[in-house]
Design brief:
Largest sheet of chain B: 4 strands, antiparallel
CATH topology of the largest domain in chain B: MetI-like fold
Oligomer: heterodimer
Low-confidence stretches of chain A: none
Radius of gyration of chain B: 36 Å
Distance between the termini of chain B: 60 Å
Largest interface: A-B, 110 and 111 residues
Structural class of chain A: mainly alpha
Number of domains of chain B: 3
CATH superfamily of chain A: MetI-like
Number of helices of chain B: 20
Strand order of the largest sheet of chain B: 2-3-1-4
Mean pLDDT of chain B: 85
Mean pLDDT of chain A: 86
CATH class of chain A: Mainly Alpha
Helix content of chain B: 55-70%
Low-confidence stretches of chain B: 526-530
CATH architecture of the largest domain in chain B: Orthogonal Bundle
Largest sheet of chain A: 2 strands, antiparallel
CATH topology of chain A: MetI-like fold
CATH superfamily of the largest domain in chain B: MetI-like
Structural class of chain B: alpha+beta
């Protein structure tokens, strides 16, 4: 590795200091605060009392909506990450081909990635309105359906729509991750495989998948984290209604702490969420660090 | 060069092509559209079943029905009795006699009707005929000639056959959907008085198609009672013509598989693009519609009937410029802070060896894992202590901190990829480390720096959650929070919501498109997401 050796040993740390300060104050410090709060008594008015052990945690688990919210979070993460990874992979495979208009297609695919989630959620919210939503309008005008369809008959269906919007906004990220992996594959590998008589599927399994696996791992782990943390979609489309039936953990803890004045259980949930994220972050770091060592 | 095997294959293809077209023509002549129409209605008030008046009216109606039967219509007589007690306590009844006619039409019936779908039908027929002619002409005497030795004339004719059949296949759904639209929507809209324009002309055309123009004045009520049964069989036209298309492709290119795959590729890309653009289309048209139109269940048009540019001026008075300014401040400030902290750190990471380098890397990556949402409570507590809640400055710093990881990561990657020799030369020439960084490395790393810059800017611009929690006064709201005032619980002003969204979205999408290429390169190494 090329490096300019600092004459003074402490010099690199001066260069790093602003960055470390920024992260410490605004990222690490809030983490510590949340941990402290989760073990403290908090009145509904927000006054922070003394140490109460794990009572906030037991309170959180005892909340009536706890189980539903946990299951929702699980399905939310699994379905959004799983399906958008699959779709993104397929789209990336197609976009990796040479064809006319490829640049335009790539530019179009960037749109959902660049748009604020709250705006996208609002648009979809309008599209699937029963009375005047655009989807019904389009289908009716085309004569595909005879009368307006109610797209939001129950909270389960609404939750599925939320997952759909989640997939819609996540696919571009996966696509571009996989695409960057695909483009780094040496074309001569495929030529050699073709000479050896390999078909499409065996090329996919034996060349493409192993070589894009690092990109795929990074995008999957990051997606798990980002999707887990996603707030605007659920909040804009249903606000968790009815009775937290469509809430995920993140929107639920927001509701708990800023609407229902149950800051204690909310901080406990934050810590639980934090620990889940830590687990994912650990996996991610191991992957990235290993990749770093390879290169 | 002549190949007897090919002759066999081509003969088969030609046969399939003709068969597909014949099948399509047979399908078109089947009675695919079935109708049930009330051709004559007679209402008789104050009548009771079996009394004198009833019998008289019934006889009259039956005479009319006979008249229809004499003209060759298949009609049936229906009677409907409505009994009720009026305000004086007397029982009255209303008997409605209806003469129903059931009949069916085939696709060829649409010829000469003058309906919009007629043009499409003529196109389909013309294209099919053209394809048939071209294929036959293009194969004359050259059935055993491999495709690449074909004379230019034959190659051109066969290509023409492919193109014509492709157009025909694509026109079939247009034809079917146009008919569905006319039968199931346009009639009811005209009858409900929702649109006036063109009513007479449309009804006259329907009359010509359905009743050979004999309904005249009564066409309105006849159409009101029209019951249509669409035969799903009409969709079989697509596979029939598709067989011909594939045969034509085989005749022209030989290699049908690769051509087909190519076609599927384009189809897939087009569908993906359309789905992606759909919400943006909705956003744009809704932004320019009037409030009444946004809530109109029967809104018919693909585009607003009148483009309401006033929506854009209206949102100016609803605080949107202020929100945009706040967003600009937050995003711009966050970018500056993130860069000021990130560039030195990235430089140290790329160019210096020191104890704890790995630990710092881990620290940075870790910080990226926690989107601010899960730490909301901690952040709001911290901001309270620092007296930074409800301030643009606080948002700026939070955004800078949570985007720091990516900035460091991407910049470091860019710096590593640039050889350090130039800087070393600058150092020897007497530049300090800072001079070497600002005068040599930063200009060279400009593309990477711009990418990181824009990315941080967009992330901060689109941030929503922290802003909702931290900002409590209207004047400090960024645009993402500001637009939610248009969708309050009791009053949703979709047109303003989407007009403001459009203004907030267009610049960032353009910015994002400009860095997309650089971003993909640094993506999997760093890991980025908005």
């Amino acid at each position: 590795m090329n490096s300019i050796q600092g004459k003074r040993k402490w010099e690199p740390y001066v260069w790093l200091l602003p960055s470390i300060l920024l992260i410490s104050i605004f990222v690490v410090f809030p983490i510590l605060i949340v941990f402290k709060l989760s073990f403290s008594e908090i009145t509904p008015g927000g006054v922070i009392g003394g140490f109460i052990g794990f009572r906030n945690f037991t309170d959180a688990v005892k909340l009536p909506a706890f189980k539903t919210v946990m299951m929702n979070t699980f399905w939310w993460v699994i379905s959004v990450v799983g399906l958008s990874t699959l779709l993104g992979f397929i789209i990336a495979m197609v976009l990796n081909q040479q064809f006319r208009g490829r640049k335009i297609a790539r530019s179009i695919l960037v749109f959902p990635w660049a748009t604020s989630l709250v705006i996208q959620a609002s648009v979809w919210n309008y599209i699937i309105k029963y009375e005047y939503g655009n989807l019904n309008n389009v289908l009716l005008n085309l004569g595909i359906v005879g009368q307006a369809i109610n797209w939001r008959t129950s909270y389960t269906v609404e939750f599925i729509w939320e997952c759909g919007v989640g997939i819609f906004v996540t696919v571009p990220f996966v696509t571009f991750c996989v695409l960057s992996g695909l483009q780094s594959i040496d074309g001569s590998l495929y030529e050699a495989a073709t000479v050896d008589g390999a078909g499409f599927w065996s090329k996919l399994w034996k060349i493409t998948l192993p070589l894009v696996r690092p990109s795929l791992t990074v995008s999957t782990v990051l997606n798990i984290i980002y999707v887990f943390n996603s707030f605007p979609i659920v909040y804009t489309m249903t606000k968790g209604a009815p009775a937290h039936k469509t809430d995920t953990m993140i929107t639920y803890l927001y509701m708990l702490s800023f609407y229902e004045r149950k800051k204690g259980p909310a901080t406990a949930l934050s810590v639980i969420g934090f620990l889940i994220l830590c687990l994912c972050a650990g996996i991610y770091m191991v992957t990235v660090m290993r990749k770093e060592e390879e290169s | 060069m002549r190949d007897p095997d090919l002759k066999k294959a081509n003969r088969l293809s030609l046969l399939l092509l003709v068969l597909g077209i014949v099948l399509a023509l047979i399908l078109m002549s089947l009675p695919l559209y079935r109708f049930n129409a009330a051709v004559y209605i007679k209402k008789s008030p104050n009548t009771f079943v079996g009394d004198e008046k009833y019998l008289a009216v019934k006889e009259e109606v039956e005479t009319v029905a006979e008249g229809y039967r004499a003209q060759g219509f298949d009609v049936e007589l229906d009677e409907d009795v409505l009994t009720r007690v009026n305000s004086k306590g007397e029982t009255t009844s209303l008997i409605t006699f209806t003469i129903n006619e059931s009949f069916s039409k085939n696709v060829f019936s649409f010829l000469g009707s003058g309906l919009p779908s007629e043009t499409v039908l003529i196109l389909i027929l013309a294209m099919t005929a053209l394809a048939l002619g071209c294929a036959l002409l293009g194969c004359r005497g050259e059935m055993d000639l491999p495709q690449r030795y074909l004379p230019r004339r034959s190659a051109l004719l066969r290509s023409l056959a492919c193109a014509a059949l492709l157009v025909a296949v694509l026109a079939v759904p247009v034809f079917v959907l146009m008919n569905n639209y006319a039968f199931s929507r346009q009639i009811s809209l005209y009858n409900a008085g929702l649109i006036e324009e063109g009513r007479e002309a449309f009804f006259a055309k329907m009359d010509r198609l359905l009743f050979s123009g004999q309904m005249g004045e009564g066409i309105g009520s006849a159409l009101a009672g029209l019951d249509v049964k669409h035969a799903p069989l009409i969709w079989m036209l697509i596979p029939a013509l598709l067989v011909s298309l594939l045969a034509a492709i085989q005749l022209r290119f030989g290699a049908i598989r690769s051509t087909l795959l190519r076609g599927l590729l384009y189809l897939f890309v087009i569908i993906v693009c359309l789905v992606t653009l759909y919400p943006y289309y909705v956003m744009t048209i809704t932004a320019f519609r009037s409030n009444a139109e946004t809530l109109d269940m029967y809104f018919l048009h693909m585009f607003p009937t009148k483009w309401n540019w006033s929506n854009l001026t209206d949102i100016i008075h609803r605080g949107v410029p202020r929100y945009l300014l706040n967003s600009l401040l937050v995003a711009g400030g966050a970018t500056v802070v993130a860069m000021l902290c990130g560039v030195p750190a990235a430089y140290a990471m790329a160019r210096m060896n020191f104890f704890g380098k790995k630990a710092f890397l881990g620290f940075v990556i870790m910080s990226q894992m926690f989107s601010p949402v899960v730490l909301l409570i901690g952040i709001s507590q911290l901001m309270n202590t620092l007296h930074l809640n409800n301030s643009v400055l606080g948002l700026m710093l939070i955004n800078a901190a949570f985007n720091q990881a990516f900035a460091v990561w991407l910049l470091r990657g860019t710096f590593v990829s640039i050889s350090p020799e130039m800087e070393q030369a600058a150092l020897i020439d007497g530049c300090g480390t800072i001079g070497a960084l600002t005068r040599v490395l930063i200009p060279m790393a400009a593309p990477g720096i711009v990418t990181a810059l824009i990315f941080v800017f967009i992330n901060a611009w689109n941030e929503y959650t922290i802003s909702t929690v931290l900002i409590s006064t209207d004047a400090n709201r960024p645009i993402t929070v500001g637009i939610t005032q248009f969708s309050s619980f009791n009053m949703i002003e979709w047109q303003y919501l989407f007009a403001a969204s459009l203004v907030a979205t267009i610049p960032v999408v353009i910015l994002f498109m400009s860095i997309e290429k650089h971003l993909t390169a640094g993506l999997t190494s760093g890991g980025v997401k908005g």
